[in-house]
Amino acid sequence: MSGPVGVLVPAAGAGVRLGPGAPKALRLLAGEPLLVHAVRGLRACAEVGPVVVAAPAPDVDAVAALLAPHDVVVVAGGAERHDSVAAALAALPAQVGLVLVHDAARCLTPSAVVTAVVEALRAGAGAVVPVLPVADTVKRVDGDRVVATVPRADLRAVQTPQGFRRDLLAAAHAAGGQQHTDDAGMVEALGHEVVVVPGSEEAFKVTRPLDLLLAEALLAARRGADPVPGTRA
Ligand code: CTP
Ligand code: MG
Fold first, then answer.
1. Which domains does the chain have, with CATH numbers?
2. How far away, in angstroms, is 55 Cα from ligand 1 center?
3. pLDDT tens digits for range 72-119
4. Distance between Cα 15 and ligand 2 center (Å)
5. pLDDT in tens, 9-27
6. Residue 70 gets which letter from DSSP?
7. Can you tell me which atom of ligand 1 is nearest the CA of 54?
8. Does the beta carbon of 232 sit less than 6 angstroms from any atom of ligand 1?
């Protein structure tokens, strides 16, 4: 499918797991809000067209000012992530037929991941997710007892950006499916195929305090100071 690729950036979460402080998207990383890093990364991708950010409702004006240099539309997010995605989708220009949904919290995602998702969409996929193999052994538990060890060879951890034909994403959100933790899950629930492309360790989601330290270290490595082993070619 040809035409512009729009990006929806859910950035309205509180960041409860990060601990007390500003909403996660506004927490500082190397002196700049996470969201600025995320949007700058998207804008560095030639494939990316219109960008709509869903910000915490009280911070919409501040976020719009913060992102003024980056040519984005800012809307108020909702109580749950899927509410924020739906609000951003409603603000995406009508002519945009391909859509990426990208967590602001995956603020250092390499552009190669974005490109891989867009290429799969252009090649005809209706829904695309970047994935990584699962490194840990995974067990199912019941209370404090292990019930089963889950074979991990065919398990994948899923990242963003997730890519969609706009009509599929809109149908998935219209159908509800609020129990799903990602957009591809909602599309799967409608019976549509979702294809995978390689993700990146550098596309990790800043979730807990340790992730902020990791993000600082990765940024420093990219900027040429104190390289972190394994993070650069
Ligand atoms: N998000 C959103 N609107 C919400 C909840 C989450 O736009 N109501 C966004 C977050 O800002 C983040 C992405 O969805 O960029 C992934 O969510 P998560 O990592 O869970 O972030 P938070 O919900 O902010 O964190 P926590 O669950 O620890 O509160
Ligand atoms: Mg959350």
1. 5-223 (3.90.550.10)
2. 10
3. 999 999 999 999 999 999 999 999 999 999 999 999 999 999 999 999
4. 7
5. 999 999 999 999 999 999 9
6. G
7. 7
8. no
